[in-house]
Amino acid sequence: MRLQPDQQTGPGDRAAGEALSLSRAAPVLEVNALKTYFFTRSGAVKAVDGVSFALARGETLAIVGESGCGKSVTALSLMRLIPDPPGRIVGGSIRLDNVDILSLDDDEMRAMRGRDISMIFQEPMTSLNPVMTIGRQIGEVLKLHQTLTNSELRKKVVALLSLVRIPEPAQRAREYPHQLSGGMRQRVMIAIALACNPKVLIADEPTTALDVTVQAQILELIVDLQKKLGTAVILITHDLGLVAQTAQRVIVMYAGRKVEEAAVGALFAGPQHQYTRGLMASLPRLGLLRGETASTGRLQEIPGMVPPLTNLPAGCAFAPRCPRADERCAAENPPYEEKTAGHWAACWHPGPSNGRGHD
Amino acid sequence: MTTVEHSADLAKAGANITTRWQGAMFLARHYPLGAAGAIILIIFVLTAIFAGSLSPFDPTLTNSGASLARPGSAHWLGADFMGRDVFSRIVGGSQISLAVGLGSIVLGCLVGVPIGLLSGYFGGWLDLIVQRVIDMMQSLPLLVTALVMAAALGPSLRNTIIAIAIPLVPSISRIVRSNTLALKEMPFIEAARAIGLSETWIAIRHVLPNTLAPLIVLVTAQFGSAILVEASLSFLGLGVPEPYPSWGRMLSESAAEYMRAAPWLVVFPGLAISLVVFGANLLGDALRDMLDPRLRR
Amino acid sequence: MTDALVHAQAGDSGIAEPVLVVDALKKHFPVKRRFFGGASEQVRAVDGVSFSIGEGETLGLVGESGCGKSTVGRAILRLIEPTAGSIRVAGHDITRLSNRAMRPFRRELQIIFQDPFSSLNPRMTVGDIVGEPLHTHHLANGKACQARVAQLFDRVGLSRAQMNNYPHQFSGGQRQRIGIARALALNPRLIVCDEPVSALDVSIQAQVINLLMDLQRDLGLSYLFISHNLAVVEHISHRIAVMYLGRIVETADKATIFTRPGHPYTEALLSAIPVPDPTIRDTRPALQGDVPSPVHPPSGCHFHTRCPYAVARCKVDTPLLHEIAPGQHVACHLR
């Protein structure tokens, strides 16, 4: 793993070490060959097409990709919130702490949501009921999964609001969502999600709608709470910066499939799949913040667009846009295999073109 | 959701449509009920256009000898108490219904659309005053209006069309206004201003075409409703007078006395009204479904 | 409050007359309380903003929600009427011109929007959308117009064959290109780019940013690049102005802003950016609190409620922009 010359062994490496040791313990979530399709008039949209991964207890896994890659659909599949019709989980298995989620009936699944696995969404305003006070909404999830007296409930709500660092929690509990700022609402969402101390928290683009400074606060909060409560977090995002700063392990998705998976340090130091490489190269470098010279010149582009999910090409889905694609790539789907220790990718021509390590 | 965006793109990619006919067939396959409604309405319109050639008898021709004739070879759907051929009267009545349906809607749009557009786009005092006038129009009950018009001006086809158009104006202007309010905040309207287009031009050439889609849905539904209203008015004697063969009046003349003796006098006009209204509603529903996802992202 | 110093540094490229000079621009929105007049509260969306942009230069305008950057962009084009201040385009004062008198200046200033989905009229073909400015200003008609539109399509990397398609048949990135083509149709000197890549996927963002930079190089365009995404701003701008609650708190060239930020808010913004490099993890605590409401901004320096260095004076006196280093202006009592 390459280090920047003027950095000591940083949190990135420690995270990698943690990731390896965590993954040896029994995973809290195991997803195997998950397939979620949407059946529309124009054919089956293969939103998630055979995705597998495991999540260790207390780990932060980031799922990265652009729109249409299937990351949000994966999250909704884990919660079994896929609208049916037109969507359906057509294959694979999901085991949460050894319980087969896909075999549960509706009541059992509802009991799990909020208690064992919960989710926070991108838009805090529309995710909160505008006509219920904050306190009632948090209380709702507590009442559903736990038996508490009214005063215990109130105390717990206030405690949760302080946990997510909302000032004057007792006062806030009586307020309505529109009286709070975006950042506060997202904290309330986190409080609701963590109220029953779930094993897994799914955060679907939790900071995309927030300002940069508020985003930093929320991320700090999530990381902090995760350490305190030992929750495993699946962070779904398109922002590689967030991934670098919060995740321990990363999965990159493209057109409904996994294309790469690695510990965060390894991924950024030496991305294998050409899509990942293209994505990283197309980001503005923020060279000045890293002590380099100012960025000039062109960003590296990934030409073209994501293929339609009802009409994926026969071979590698990324081949039409890949600078290194050849006939084999267009004809055969590359197998998903371990390229280096703990680093998996599905690519016929992984790594940099000249074989040297740095991106 | 991303998948909806994809399927919209796919609908175009996978469909491979090149001609209008292929387009129509594509739509018919995906919206069968709407297609059925469209077919009903097409038959209705064609009947009205070719009424003269289609009717075996003059709809107003009386023949006491054939009074209350049963449906048979001479009179396909029977004859009424004056010996007038029911089939011819139904075919003739379709002209009336079409005239009223189309006429009231066109009149309603001619008045309602500019009101809604200007009121919504320019806002301010204009909007306030115009909306109060619209409120007043909406508070006029249809029957009272029709009654007053019939009493003051005499019942006629023209007055019926006007009477039915009056309550349509508020609905039409409301829908155009609310769409205008939403549209005028959109970036493409700001872009039009940035180019230097005048406000009037923007209102007519940029805002108006985008309000038409929901308007078409409303208007199709109102078509059926207008026909129904005309039937009710004529039933009450306030609508289209003799000698025009109105379906509604056919019902009113026969319903009380001849329901049991000559049910064909009631069934066929009633069926005609129901079919046309039903067809209009089916088409309206399908249009709404069809136009809706495209308006969304 | 004229900041003559700010104007003096206009056009680092060395050209004498700046393309755009904005002086003490203000925009206040009344918050209607009562129907019959009466003192209503004001949202001071833009509260005295001054800057200038030279030829071929990009000024990045950054800030978080409620800072007024989008309002500034629209006010410059007179899409929103300024409450006070002046806007000069190539030396001409356009602040109070009538619609008719504004028309020729519409050719100098154009805008591209954030949302590729609602910035194009869904009922017009994209060829018509791009050609409309040409018709409006009587620059070309019929075949000549078609030819020019085709040229513009080539310029922005779209296929000529698609000129008769409708917006919904294009992807987000392509629609943004159409918006750029429309903005270029009149050969403007300056384009206000209002968050042009924020709604696009990362890989498409790179395409559009590259296009904008190529166009600047080839056509000598100036940009007012409004964005909350500091990484993109760092890449495309020459100079950067940082806004907070309606006021500019710092302006400097790109390198200075990122390596020697003068204002505490700029520092906070920079430290909040998640750097896409796991070996660099900023351990400084994030800025606390939320952005105050523009209806009731804090007294004195708007930032004092969240500033880690605030002293008593900050609550009372409003700091003005003053030069702390060549080309760097900061509005802070402590610098």
Draw up the topology in text:
The complex is a heterotrimer of chains A (359), B (297) and C (335).
Chain A: H1 11-24, E1 29-40, E2 43-55, E3 60-64, H2 71-78, E4 87-96, E5 99-100, H3 106-112, E6 117-120, H4 124-127, H5 134-145, H6 150-163, H7 169-172, H8 182-194, E7 200-204, H9 212-229, E8 232-237, H10 240-246, E9 249-254, E10 257-263, H11 264-269, H12 274-281, H13 327-331, E11 337-340, E12 343-345
Parallel strand pairs in A: 3-8, 3-9, 6-7, 7-8
Antiparallel strand pairs in A: 1-2, 1-4, 4-5, 9-10, 10-12, 11-12
Helix pairs in contact in A: 5-6, 5-8, 8-9
Chain B: H1 2-15, H2 20-30, H3 32-49, H4 51-54, H5 86-122, H6 124-139, H7 142-153, H8 157-183, H9 187-195, H10 199-235, H11 247-258, H12 264-295
Helix pairs in contact in B: 2-3, 3-5, 3-12, 5-6, 5-8, 5-10, 6-8, 7-8, 8-10, 10-11, 10-12, 11-12
Chain C: H1 4-8, E1 20-31, E2 41-53, E3 58-62, H2 69-76, E4 84-89, E5 92-93, H3 99-106, E6 109-112, H4 126-136, H5 142-155, H6 172-184, E7 190-194, H7 202-219, E8 222-227, H8 230-236, E9 239-244, E10 247-253, H9 254-259, H10 264-272, H11 312-316, E11 322-325, E12 328-330
Parallel strand pairs in C: 3-8, 3-9, 6-7, 7-8
Antiparallel strand pairs in C: 1-2, 1-4, 4-5, 9-10, 10-12, 11-12
Amount of beta strand of chain B: under 5%
State the secondary-structure class of chain B.
mainly alpha
**Total E-strand runs of chain B:** 0
Number of domains of chain B: 1
SSE order of chain B, one letter for each helix or strand: HHHHHHHHHHHH
Largest sheet of chain B, in brief, is:
none
Q: Rounded to an integer, what's the Rg of chain B over CA atoms?
A: 23 Å
Oligomer: heterotrimer
Helix/strand-derived category of chain A reads alpha/beta
Please tell me the overall pLDDT of chain B.
82
CATH names the topology of chain B as MetI-like fold
Helical proportion of chain B, percent range: over 70%
- The beta-strand count of chain A equals 12
Proper CATH architecture of the largest domain in chain A:
3-Layer(aba) Sandwich
The CATH H-level superfamily of chain B is: MetI-like
Poorly predicted ranges of chain A: 1-19, 355-359
User: Beta-strand percentage of chain A?
Assistant: 15-25%
The greatest interface here is: A-C, 56 and 46 residues
How is the biggest beta sheet of chain A arranged? 8 strands, mixed
Please give the CATH architecture of chain B. Answer: Orthogonal Bundle
End-to-end C-alpha gap of chain A? 12 Å
